[in-house]
Amino acid sequence: MSSQNPDPASVRDDRVLGFLLDFTLLTVATVVVWVVFTGVRMLVTTGGAMGAPTVDSPGTMLGMVALGFALSLLQWAVIGLVVGGYFVYFLTDGGQTLGMRVAGVVLVGEDGGPVTRDQTIQRTAVLLAPLPLMALASVFIPFVGFVLALLLMGGWLTVEALLLFTDDDAQRLGDRIANTLVVESTA
Description:
The protein is mainly α. The protein has helices at residues 8-45, 58-92, 98-103, 117-127, 131-140, 145-166, 173-178; strands at residues 105-109, 180-184. It has a two-stranded antiparallel sheet with strand order 1-2.
């Protein structure tokens, strides 16, 4: 593809700034979800102290462990919905996340027109591709699973950043798949 982004190099720094702002905001949202689910899990596992039936049979213990796993998987699903919903909502409605707005960049189709919901979903799906593996590692591998999950996301974001900085049009993989470009905002 020929370069359709007027000056991709000038967009890279602003784009990274916008992503870092979005990442910070979404990290706060993720921590809130994490704290809420941790509180729910604590209430479930300490239910005996609150007047709920005590865990005195293997069946009850197995049920509580299964409930804990289910709550953990639900927690990851909610995180995925929050992060994915943020990007799809803001990018479909004006082509800018809050971070992109501050950084002065906008997402457009490769033809220069507004992005469609399908494009924003495709682009976001690529960004969140490692989330299911992160969830499984975090939930089912005691202690080191969370670290593995963080390494998976860090590795994926590194791949995306490398593509962003080596592509002639400053596109990451999600942009290539969705046929989108991030350009300087004219507004």
